[in-house]
Design goal:
CATH architecture of one domain: 3-Layer(bba) Sandwich
Mean pLDDT: 93
CATH class of one domain: Alpha Beta
CATH topology of one domain: FAD/NAD(P)-binding domain
CATH superfamily of one domain: FAD/NAD(P)-binding domain
Structural class: alpha+beta
Low-confidence stretches: none
Shape: globular
Number of strands: 21
Oligomer: single chain
Distance between the termini: 51 Å
Length: 512
């Protein structure tokens, strides 16, 4: 592959939505930061960034929850948090409540909370080991013993104090937001910062010598040094360069369809996502400031669209009016090569893993951040492409394993789907051996060191492992009073956090 001999001067992003506009605003901030800082269109950009999107292709717009690190993206883009939340009808998210992923316990629906925070109290032994060795699973959930967020959601509190600055709180937090409104908000901010916006529909992709030379649209032809494919599952640009470029994850993650329902809020908004397991998949419930987004992610080989919609509607009941219902086909897996020639796929064009841990925007953020460094050199060599492809493949593969972890620890046997779910660890290299080891030792940092994980560490693994009852058998090292003292401190910190934070309802009324 011949490498570029001239400096990078132009980037053309095809496709809007979250993927296109997050990438556009990020790359513009990185490469044209002097122009953005001056706020003047008279300053010539270092790299011309153009986004081409069609009015005829709707934004999917159902990915409405985020991980906590998205705050740093918004902050780095210079976006005002209060304005962002107003414009996107956003609320806070401090974690995910998982329900019904195992059989009922003592007649009660099984549930556990995966928060974004994990306490560290300066002990020689980490709090997770202390919780396990004191057999506190007979008294409380793991999240209740090691997380402040678990206590805050029970008290209906937000992560903010009256003194909290933008993007800061007493615990890490993400958002529940309207994905369509977020894309529009980012579009406005990107255009104000100098990104060129072109409304056009792509009719053809012209390829020459292994690169895209131009795209043909109903509004003319467009050339660029680099093209970014943000065309969703269609992968319009990258497919034109390389066929047979997809690796499927459906052996490990068979949920390939979803039915999404937007409805009126049945109750005051909750500062967490709910993921409830049903017969052949799971349902998300995401509370925004003005409505609730729900959806059933399911195995399309086991249920028809009509059956899935009926099961979702039956689960939701009739407490709130339905505003919109949408059926989605999902392509589960990722590209073998995200970057081919002068084209890079970002977002759904590059890959998709079911949104169980709300990682859609995070993967876009990763793709854009890596582009900013991999495009910074004088040449875009094959070595640079290989590096980008290796890293992106690593992100998706590690995320696949973490999502499989949620399924393979189940003891549910009430359907073919759940009986098969318990065997899915075999499709993640090394996971069965890790699970066997974690029956006899705590999951710790070094167990996962050297992986590509950027969000989910040993702390996150422990919330799922112990939430699903996969406890190691450990020897007791301390006396009961020492354990009691440690967990009394947790309760003190939790009470202080409750008293110092703003009730969620108050924040949404007064501070948005």
């Amino acid at each position: 592959m011949q490498q570029s001999k001239t400096p990078l001067r132009s980037i053309c992003i095809v496709g809007g939505g979250s993927s296109g506009w997050m990438t556009a605003i990020y790359l513009n901030r990185v490469f044209n930061g002097d122009r953005v800082a001056n706020g003047s269109s008279e300053v010539a950009p270092n790299i011309e960034i153009r986004l081409v999107e069609s009015e005829d292709i709707a934004i999917i717009g159902v990915g409405e929850a985020t991980v906590h690190s998205i705050r740093f993206f918004f902050a780095a883009m210079g976006l005002d948090e209060a304005e962002l939340m107003r414009e996107t009808n956003a609320t806070f998210k401090t974690g995910i409540m998982f329900r019904n992923w195992r059989k009922p316990v003592n007649g009660q629906t099984h549930q556990y909370f995966h928060p974004f925070d994990h306490l560290k109290l300066g002990m020689d032994m980490d709090i997770s080991s202390s919780w396990l060795q004191d057999a506190r699973y007979t008294l409380e959930r793991f999240d209740q013993g090691v997380s402040l967020s678990s206590h805050l959601i029970a008290a209906g509190r937000s992560p903010k104090t009256p003194q909290s600055e933008a993007y800061q709180g007493v615990v890490p937090y993400g958002y529940h937001l309207d994905a369509v409104k977020m894309a529009r908000f980012l579009r406005r901010k990107a255009i104000e910062a100098g990104v060129i916006h072109q409304v056009a529909t792509v009719k053809d992709v012209v390829v020459a010598a292994g690169n895209i030379s131009e795209i043909v649209t109903d509004q003319g032809n467009f050339t660029a040094d680099i093209f970014i494919d943000s065309t969703g599952f269609r992968g319009l640009l990258l497919d034109a360069l390389k066929a047979d470029n997809w690796q499927s994850f459906t052996d490990a993650l068979p949920c390939n369809k979803a039915v999404a329902i937007q409805r009126e809020l049945p109750a005051p908004p909750k500062p967490y996502t709910t993921a409830t397991a049903l017969s052949h998949g799971w349902v998300w419930e995401i509370d925004l400031a003005d409505r609730q987004g729900t959806g059933y992610v399911y195995d399309g080989e086991k249920l028809s669209k009509e059956q899935a919609e009926q099961e979702l509607r039956s689960y939701l009941g009739s407490d709130a009016a339905v505003l919109k219902c949408t059926h989605l086909d999902m392509k589960v897996g990722c590209r073998k090569e995200f970057w081919v020639g002068n084209c890079i796929a970002v977002g759904l064009a590059g890959g998709f893993i079911e949104p169980l841990e709300s990682t859609g925007l995070h993967l876009i953020n990763l793709g854009a951040r890596l582009l900013s460094t991999h495009l910074a050199g004088e040449q875009q060599s094959q070595a640079v492409r290989d590096s980008y492809n290796r890293l992106m493949n690593g992100f998706y593969t590690d995320l696949k394993q973490f999502i499989v972890l949620h399924y393979c620890l189940t003891d549910r046997d009430d359907s073919e789907f759940w009986r098969a779910a318990a065997e899915k660890a075999q499709y993640c290299e090394g996971l069965p051996a890790q699970l066997a080891c974690w029956q006899h030792k705590v999951c710790e940092y070094m167990d996962l060191a050297g992986t590509f994980s950027t969000t989910f560490t040993d702390e996150n693994y422990r919330f799922v492992l112990y939430g699903m009852g996969h406890y190691p058998q450990l020897q007791r090292r301390f006396t009961t009073p020492q354990y009691e003292s440690l967990f009394a401190k947790v309760q003190q910190q939790a009470k202080h956090a409750e008293l110092s934070t703003i009730p969620l309802a108050t924040y949404l009324q007064r501070y948005r």
